[in-house]
Amino acid sequence: MLTVAVLISGTGSNLRALLDAADDPAYPARIVVVGADRDADGLEHAEAFGIPSFTVPYAAYPSREAWGAELDAQLRVWNPDLIVLSGLMRLLPPAVVHAWAPRIVNTHPAYLPDFPGAHAVRDALAAGAQQTGASVIVVDDGVDSGPILAQERVPVLPGDDEHTLHERIKPVERRLLIDVVRRVATGELDLAAASAPAGTTPDVPVRPAASTTHP
Ligand code: GRF
Q: Does the structure show a pLDDT above 90 at 204?
C-alpha cells in the first residue's frame, strides 16, 4: 500500500477527490497526512476523513528555507512513499525537493510547458488561448518544469472567466491525479525512471508498495 502525504493551500477540492478515491479499499494508496502552509479551508477534508494534518505557516518563518526545513521535519514523521502537492501555492526550497525527489508530484491547471506558475488559468485567458489543460508532473527545482506524468487538454470557451475555466480544469486534474497516484502505487509508473535524464538508468527506485509504520 503506497502511503501519501498531500500538501495544500486552498479549498482542497483535489485533495477531497483523492481522499474519496483512497476510501475505496481497492485503491492501492492511502493518504496518511495532510499538510498546509496556512490555515487552509481544505484541512477540513482531512478532519472529515479522520486523517491527521499539520500546518507550517509560511508567514511564521524568516525564510523559505526555514519554512521548508520545518515542513520537511513534519513530513519525516510520517515518512510517506509519495508527496502530492495539490494546490500548495509555495515553491518548495531545493533542499526539500532533493530530500524527497523523485517522490514529489504536483498537479497544475495548464497543459505544461504552457502557462507555468501561480496564475496558470489567468495567464491562459490573458494569452487568448483556445485551449489549456491540466498536468501532473514530478517536482524538480524549477517552476512547474519537472517531467510530465499525465496531461490532458481542456477547451477555453467563449465568455470564460478565471473561475469558470478553473472549474472546468479541476475535474480533469482530479482524474489525472487519482490515476497517477494509482499507477505509482501499482508500480505501473516509475517516478525514478520518469525523472531520469534520457539514456540513463535511475539508481533510486521508488517503492511501489512499501509498508510503513506510522505514529
Ligand atoms: C488546483 O487547480 C491546483 O492545480 C492549483 O490550485 C488548485 C487547487 O484547488 N494550483 P483545490 O484547493 O484543490 O480546490
A: no
**Hey, what CATH class is 1-100 in?**
alpha beta
**Hunting for cell 513530513 — which residue is that?**
75
Centroid of ligand 1 to alpha carbon of 85 (angstroms):
9
Give residue-wise pLDDT tens across range 52-64.
999 999 999 999 9
Ligand 1: residue whose CA is nearest its atom 7: 87
DSSP secondary structure letters along 55-87 = E--GGGSSSHHHHHHHHHHHHHHH--SEEEESS
Name which residue sits closest to atom 14 of ligand 1, judged by CA.
13
Catalytic annotation on 166? no
What DSSP letter does each residue of 128-187 carry, written as one string? T-SEEEEEEEE--SSSS-SPEEEEEEEEPPTT--HHHHHHHHHHHHHHHHHHHHHHHHHT
Amino acid occupying residue 184? V
pLDDT value at 210 more than 60: no
